[in-house]
Design brief:
67% of the residues lie in helices and 0% in strands. It is mainly α and 136 residues long. It has one domain.
Length: 136
């Protein structure tokens, strides 16, 4: 069964359906955590000190790659309140800013992964002083 699924995923249609399913899962997780995050709101039902979907967005981008960004945007648009005409005005900037935070988190992790300091061979500065007997 697993071989058949893998072979199906190699086809163009299978790849497209699999990608749509991945984006759908990210959208659902983002939307669900956003709705839960709105329960933490303390001002007008939309201002929260903590926004859990950022973690979902970063995890999706780290695990699945940057190609899953449509799921983050779709989830964010689903949870957005478009009940007034004024709420449509800042749409582009608000979503771009939140997705930029998710992407920055991934870029930061990648930078940390590439920086390989020789920590294993480094000695604390005081360790060599202790050996010489001049520790403070």
């Amino acid at each position: 069964m697993a071989d058949r699924l893998q072979a199906w995923r190699q086809t163009k249609a299978g790849h497209l359906v699999w990608y749509a399913a991945e984006v759908g899962v990210v959208t659902g997780l983002y939307y669900g955590t956003a709705r839960a995050g709105l329960h933490l709101a303390y001002l007008h039902g939309s201002v929260t000190a903590l926004w859990p979907p950022v973690g979902v967005g970063i995890a999706a981008l780290v695990i699945g790659g940057p190609s899953l960004w449509p799921g983050i945007v779709a989830g964010d648009l689903l949870v957005a309140d478009f009940s007034t005409p004024c709420s449509l005005r800042p749409l582009g900037g608000r979503d771009h800013g939140r997705d930029r935070v998710d992407a920055d988190g991934v870029e930061h992790r990648e930078r940390l992964r590439t920086i390989r300091a020789p920590v294993d061979h480094a000695q604390p500065a005081c360790q060599s002083d202790v050996r010489r007997g001049s520790a403070r």
